[in-house]
Amino acid sequence: MGKKFMDAGLATSATRLLAEQDHLVGQRDNALLRSARDGRVSRQDLRRMVQADQLCLEAETVSYAILLSRFPNGPAADLFSGLNAALRSLKPSLDRCAKALEAPSASVLDPSRDATAFAFPRAVSWMCLHAGPIAAALAVRADFAAYARESGELLRALSDDGIEVPEAFREHYSVPASTELLDLAAAVVQEGFVERDSTSGRAASVADVLLVGLDGFWLFAAGDRREPSATAADQSIRRG
Q1: Do residues 71 and 80 make contact, with C-beta atoms less than 8 angstroms apart?
Q2: Long-range contacts: 198-204, Cβ < 8 Å, 24+?
Q3: DSSP secondary structure code for residue 178 in this structure
Q4: How far apart are alpha carbons 114 and 86 in whole angstroms?
Q5: pLDDT tens digit string along 179-227?
Q6: Which pTM value belongs to this model?
Q7: Cβ(200)–Cβ(28) below 8 Å
Q8: CA separation (Å) from 112 to 119, 215, 230?
Q9: Beta-carbon neighbour count of residue 90 at 10 Å?
């Protein structure tokens, strides 16, 4: 009986943690969105966005393959293999964006000059080596949901301002986050809490690392080379 109540309590904690992350994602803002609302987004901003996205896609694809090698069984394995496959399927679409915008190759980016462009690749690379399956699943779920929502809001802001974008760009960035993968990530978190008696603090901190890295992505796209940690205080206000 005691274990049954303990398991129920852990499941409730996991549900609460997922809801907190959903609230945080729903309250997020970013540098490029703010520029778009002010009518200050140029074609060069969109080029930087696609360029940084190519860098992120490469880092993520490798990172989820590493996570799969670390956790090759159960729902976590299904999640990381699914993420890897989903991201690889997006590469042709992203390549079409780059071609349509004449975006420079990600290979010309320099970590010493373009720190914000490397913020997310650094974060996801750290996560794949050090996070456990619960923390990684929570972080990935927050990142995918945030990225999809903010990309959609960007497209709407550009449209409201009458800014024309290539159809390849609109097609790529209007793709919603996969509900199947989001649900699978939530299942990994729920199951992991019950089986491992995990604490929420560690998992939430890893999600924060990834979201701050995502802030860097948007900062680079907006032409701002401040370290992404400079936005952390701004994001914490929205958590309150």
Answers
A1: yes
A2: 198/10, 198/132, 198/134, 200/13, 200/14, 200/16, 200/17, 202/132, 202/135, 203/17, 203/134, 203/135, 203/138, 203/139, 204/17, 204/20, 204/21, 204/138
A3: P
A4: 27
A5: 999 999 999 999 887 655 455 567 889 999 999 999 999 999 999 866 6
A6: 0.88
A7: no
A8: 12, 18, 17
A9: 15
Strand ranges (DSSP E) for 147-240? none
Q: How far is CA 142 from CA 14, 28, 147, 164, in A?
A: 14, 11, 8, 29
Angle at which helices 119-130 and 43-70 cross, to 10° = 10
pLDDT in tens, 73-123: 999 999 999 999 999 999 999 999 999 999 999 999 999 999 999 999 999
Contact 225, 114 (CB under 8 A): yes
CA 195 to chain centre: 26
* Backbone angles phi and psi of 10, in degrees to 5: -65, -40
